[in-house]
Amino acid sequence: MGARAVGRWALWLVTLALLCALAVWRVHPAGPVQTNILALLPDHHADPALQAATERSRDALSQRVLALVSGPDDAPTRKAALAARQAMLDAGLDAGSENAQVDRALALYRQHGFTLLSPAQVQRFEQQGAKALATAVAVSLASPAGMVSLGSDPGGYVGRFVAHLPRPYPDFLPDGPLMSAKRGDARVFLLRLAVPEAAFGAEGSTRAANAVKAAEKAVAGACTSCRFEATGAALFSDAARHEARSESIWLSVTSTLLIMILIAVVFRSLAPHLLGFLQLGASVAAATAAVIAVFGSIHILTLVFGTTLLGIAIDYAFLYFSEYWFGRSAPPQVMGKIRAGLGVGLLTGVLAFAFLALTGFPALSQMAVFSVAGLIEAALVVALIFPVTLTRPPRVADHALVDW
User: What CA–CA distance (Å, rounded) separates 260 from 270?
Assistant: First the structure.
């Protein structure tokens, strides 16, 4: 290997190593791979207090895991429901404190009781003034619970407002740590728990899935005739994450095998396999490192999308291989013959994917960086490494498939 070849290999390896080192330096403490689907949505530039309230409400809903245990007999079904609840608690889910949450909500309502007035009550105050409040107090005292709320809600406005709020589980009644309902001849128990982490993250979704599996086993062991069902955003997130991972592996392996078969049939040489693997591996490594260097982590859906990069990147290698094996140019002249086609293909591909970064969606921005970096790396491998590796005239026997 001459000095020119060594210099090209060194230049390529140093640039790729620097990009990977930058990615390692920039990687997020939580890990390089992001699985939270909400991270793909654009940021909100609203009032900070409103954004915090929105995120808190969203997390409270998404972190919830609901489970139903149903069976024909009350006692065995209750035993199975309690066993399922304990199994989910042991797995790391949080039962929370419903009473504490209700008390916090009531305390907030009491602080702003007069903002909860209905339009009719507002009109009564405007017309009657203090007489309207005195009448409301008298009506409240006439009710059985009037004396309880006399100090904090003398007119009963907060109580009436809360009484008209929709009930989250209208068919169920409190039953110790559970909620229960009667449906025909069956007794149904509702379990309400939550994951302590983000429901769409890998840790939270995995914890929820493991907890549900443990609860299902506990129900089966406590009551053979009972039925267990569960739902929650974390469970859907876990299923989607595993599906995305399996699809990414399946697509990558399938596309790689098809490329290998195509190379074997057409070129009938080991060199294209090795150089093709080198180019594809470098492209994926550079693309992943670029995304991590820019965003701190790479989303798993970006990796799934990135499998489409393999089909574009290998086109650059095929362009070189075709001219080298079947063209009329000598090996040192191959790069000059394909430089224009390679440049046009790279420029159009980079421009097409770069426009995705202008959408404002983190998902599309990651895909844009991934694709642009991967295509540039693929072209660099072809321009720097292929000419100093394929230096001897090829010897390929003619065959009908290639001629066709």
Answer: 10
**Nearest-angstrom CA–CA distance, 336 and 49:** 60
List of long-range contacts for 259-262, beta carbons under 8 Å, 24+ apart? 259/310, 259/314
Look-up of token digits 């995305």: 244
Q: Give the closest residue to 183 by CA, choosing from 16, 93, 79, 69.
A: 69
Tens of pLDDT, residues 223-246: 888 999 999 888 888 888 888 778
Q: Are 342 and 375 in contact (CB under 8 A)?
A: no
**pLDDT tens digits, one per residue of 2-54:** 788 888 899 999 999 999 999 989 888 777 877 666 666 666 555 666 666 66
Amino acid at site 372:
V
Residues 6+ away with beta carbon under 8 Å from 105: none
What is the strand order of the sheet 173-175 is part of?
173-175, 178-183, 186-194, 64-71, 227-232
Any idea which residue has 């110790």 for tokens? 176
- C-alpha distances (whole Å) from 340 to each of 41, 79, 316, 319, 349 are 39, 75, 12, 11, 14
- DSSP codes, 220-254: HHH-TT-EEEEEEHHHHHHHHHHHHHHHHHHHHHH
CB within 8 A of 250, min separation 6: which ones? none
Of 30, 49, 369, nearest to 200 by C-alpha is 30
Contacts of 144 (CB under 8 A, 6+ apart): none
- Percent of the chain beyond pLDDT 70? 74
d(CA 146, CA 108) in angstroms, rounded, equals: 20
Nearest to 317, CA basis, from 352, 350, 341, 285: 341
| Closest C-alpha to 202, from 148, 161, 238, 170 | 238
Q: Which residue has the tokens 């199994």?
A: 87
Return the pLDDT at 108.
61
Please provide residue 175's backbone torsions phi and psi, each rounded to the nearest 5 degrees: -145, 80
Look at phi and psi of residue 184 and say left if phi exceeds 0, alpha if psi is from -120 to 50, else beta.
left
Give the range among 62-76, 105-119, 123-137, 142-156 with minimum mean pLDDT.
142-156
Our CA angle for 277, 280, 285, nearest 5°, is 120
Give me the amino acid identity at 285: A
Tell me the pairing of strands 178-183 and 186-194. Answer: antiparallel
